[in-house]
Specification:
The chain has 420 residues and is an alpha+beta fold. It has three domains: 119 residues, Lipocalin (Beta Barrel); 96 residues, Lipocalin; 174 residues, Glutaredoxin. The protein contains seven helices and 26 strands. The chain is globular and about 70 Å long.
Length: 420
């Protein structure tokens, strides 16, 4: 465990002891401004993460981080009577905590689930880094037999001396950026940005493999990572995101008919889709990898809409959000989404609502439909910047696929109508 993590845990214990006796007075609002070192309690683990706060009079705002990148900012916040309240609407989440001179202590509640949070002010300067860190940079494969049929997950590590950023890339997408440093014989990396809380401890073995301890919402698991050639020799190969899901008959149109957020029905047979390239994106505002994908799709739409690109998001929301769709509206506002979003149902209904799909079990999933109305490609999952070169490759591949489809001529109108 790193000296930083030990300091965080010691600070958390000290704050808890103080709270159990006499609560210390809260600092003035401007005293909150700056960087805080926090821990999120997931099971028995205390997962470190960065939280930046800013005070402006009685108003307070907070920002989570994905590695060094700010993400998931609060939309509203306040400090009154030593009580801190921050709202994160695009995850339908809120942080409610008590602020004392010893730190911040409270609960982050998302989708009805509370995660205990404790934070102390970050010390000035940077802790000294170890000079004996082994080189673990590059791409690895974790042999796995997942419920989705995967035999391998990618582990992507970017390392600078004793510091490292990593991501585990599964068929759905990645973990977000796990970052940290080398200490006591292992790298200790973590991530929490209001979602995807995880800790990854990595130790290099004498045989060249990596021993991993991954702690997340599923508990703690011990895994092994091998270089790709060694993993392939054992039959462990990451799943191609364009080969996981398919359609029963590629000559049949992908049919959908669902209401948009004004109640107006949107269907694949609508005239506005004829002769155009259409991306049908299955997503949910609860899905972290959908948050990774949405700004990319919006930029793609803005770039190519005038050339004949349409994007339709089939949104599958969990039951608690269906009465008022607050989280979905905040998701749309956060990323400035201009493409069409329709309400398709709950996640458990996805196979019934999209019966033409085969092996549909990952979020997000996007169907690429050519100007002829046929499904050409199905891309599963999406990456974040934590996947490094793989993230750039994902975005470039999708851009190239869309450009190629847009370059095709539209079929004659009569033939198009007949095909439908």
């Amino acid at each position: 465990m790193t000296a930083l993590k030990l300091a965080l845990l010691a600070a958390a214990a000290s704050a808890a002891a103080a709270a159990s006796t006499i609560a210390a007075p809260a600092p003035a609002p401007e005293g909150l401004t700056g960087r805080w070192l926090a821990t999120a309690d997931v099971g028995d683990a205390h997962i470190p993460f960065r939280l930046d706060l800013k005070s402006d009079g009685a108003a307070v705002s907070g920002t989570f981080f994905d590695g060094p990148r700010p993400t998931n900012p609060s939309s509203a916040g306040s400090l009154a009577g030593g009580r801190l309240h921050l709202e994160f609407p695009s995850y339908a989440a809120a942080l409610d905590a008590t602020v004392t001179v010893d730190g911040i202590d409270g609960n982050y509640v998302a989708a009805g689930k509370a995660t205990h949070i404790h934070a102390v002010r970050a010390p000035a300067g940077t802790p000294p880094a170890s000079s004996s860190a082994p080189d673990i940079s590059g791409e690895w494969v974790i042999p796995i037999h997942s419920p989705k049929g995967e035999t391998g997950w990618r582990l992507i590590i970017q390392q600078t001396s004793a510091r490292a950023e990593a991501a585990i890339l599964r068929i759905d997408g990645d973990t977000g950026t796990l970052d940290g440093a080398f200490a006591d014989g292992a790298f200790h990396l973590s991530h929490f940005a209001g979602e995807r809380a995880a800790q990854l401890d990595i130790a290099r073995q004498t045989d060249g493999s990596l021993s991993l301890v991954l702690t997340d919402g599923a508990g703690a698991r011990t895994l092994t990572a091998l270089r790709p050639a060694a993993a392939a020799a054992l039959g462990a190969t990451p799943t191609d995101p364009t080969g996981h899901t398919s359609v029963r008959d590629p000559d049949e149109p992908l049919r959908f008919a669902f209401p948009d957020l004004t109640g107006r029905m949107v269907a694949n047979t609508d005239p506005r889709f004829r002769g155009k390239v259409v991306l049908v994106n299955l997503m949910g505002s609860w899905c972290p990898n959908c948050h990774d994908e949405a700004p990319f799709l919006e930029a793609l739409y803005r770039k190519h809409a005038a050339h004949g690109l349409e994007i339709v998001a089939l949104d599958f929301e969990k039951a608690d959000q269906l009465p008022d769709l607050r989280r979905l509206h905040a998701f749309i506002a956060r990323y400035g989404i201009d493409y069409t979003v329709v309400l398709a149902g709950e996640p458990s209904e996805v196979n019934a609502k999209v019966p033409q799909a085969v092996n549909l079990n990952a979020w997000p999933t996007t169907f690429f439909i050519g100007r002829d109305g046929k499904v050409r490609t199905v891309h599963v999952g999406f990456t974040s910047p934590g996947s490094g070169a793989r993230d750039l490759e994902t975005r470039a591949d999708i851009e190239a696929e869309v450009s190629a489809l847009l370059a095709e001529p539209a079929p004659p109108a009569a033939g198009d109508v007949k095909a439908r």
